[in-house]
Specification:
- This is Transcriptional regulator.
- Residues 69-138 form the Transcription regulator PadR N-terminal domain.
- InterPro entries: Tscrpt_reg_PadR_N, WH-like_DNA-bd_sf, WH_DNA-bd_sf.
- It holds the Pfam family PadR.
- By secondary structure, the chain is mainly alpha-helical.
- The chain has two domains: 55-161, Arc Repressor Mutant, subunit A; 164-209.
- It contains seven helices and three strands, in the order H-E-H-H-E-E-H-H-H-H.
- The protein has a three-stranded antiparallel beta sheet with strand order 1-3-2.
- Strand 2 and strand 3 (123-128) form a beta hairpin.
- Helix 1 (62-75) packs across helix 3 (99-112) and helix 1 (62-75) packs across helix 5.
- The longest helix has 24 residues, at 186-209.
- The two termini are 27 Å apart.
- The structure holds a DNA duplex (20 and 20 nucleotides).
DNA sequence: CGACCCTCAACAATTTATAT
DNA sequence: ATATAAATTGTTGAGGGTCG
């Protein structure tokens, strides 16, 4: 977030402008990839785990969006705009995926063979394919998890935005962890994990109850 | 010598505008 | 109204320089 020095004291004048013109000048659509090899793209069985990869995107990851889209078209074949509308409904109007995000994903899906597109008088009707079904079946659990998170996120959005104090607290925790310095014994790790787990439990409990 | 803060670089998604 | 393309924004990861 941009609040980096918001809490800080003195900073420069420009500040907020980091990457005004990095490197996408000479080509039309030169996004592509290829930097530190993060290995973010899903992969076949790939979700990996659960917890946390908040890489460059926004809320979930483009993999999640892809999964959701695939699941949606698996339920019923639809075209792009309808898909967006459906998702918006799903999120109770709190979140609507932008066309610029969903269309490339759809195209990618089609290129991957998970979905097939049928031109329908200017509209594109996306349908699930066998490969897509297989993919869905393979990642069914992941899809379910994503869906659940989607609902939770929707609720969260509906309720209130994230307090910036939270960020400060996180920072504090991180610093405490980093400053620990000493040897990380199993006991220590377990202790901290327990603390965090308890905190998480309490948070969830409070949120659910409220 | 150690720790902290700031800046650089890049990817992934959102937003916006434009074309069909 | 829908689809496509371009520009914008926000986030994340890594590194370097400076203060204590």
């Amino acid at each position: 977030m941009g609040f980096h020095h918001l809490f800080g004291r003195h900073h420069h004048h420009h500040g907020c402008d980091g990457r005004e013109a990095w490197a996408r000048e000479a080509m039309g659509i030169g996004r592509g990839r290829g930097r530190r090899g993060f290995g973010d793209d899903e992969g076949e069985g790939g979700w990996g785990g659960m917890g946390g990869r908040f890489r460059g995107g926004r809320v979930f990851g483009h993999g999640d969006l892809k999964l959701i889209l695939l699941a949606l078209i698996a339920e019923q074949p639809r075209h792009g705009y309808e898909l967006i509308r459906t998702i918006e409904e799903m999120f109770d109007g709190a979140y609507a995926p932008s066309p610029g995000a969903v269309y490339p994903t759809l195209t990618l899906l089609e290129e991957l063979g998970h979905a097939s597109v049928q031109s329908d008088d200017g509209k594109k009707l996306y349908t699930i394919t066998e490969a897509g079904k297989a993919f869905l079946a393979e990642n069914k659990e992941a899809v379910d998890a994503v869906m659940s998170r989607m609902e939770q996120t929707a609720r969260m959005f509906a309720r209130a935005a994230a307090p910036m104090a939270l960020r400060e607290a996180m920072h504090n925790l991180k610093r405490a962890l980093f400053m620990h310095g000493g040897p990380w014994n199993t006991e220590e790790v377990k202790r901290i994990v327990d603390i965090i787990k308890r905190a998480a439990d309490e948070i969830i409990k409070g949120k659910k109850d409220a």
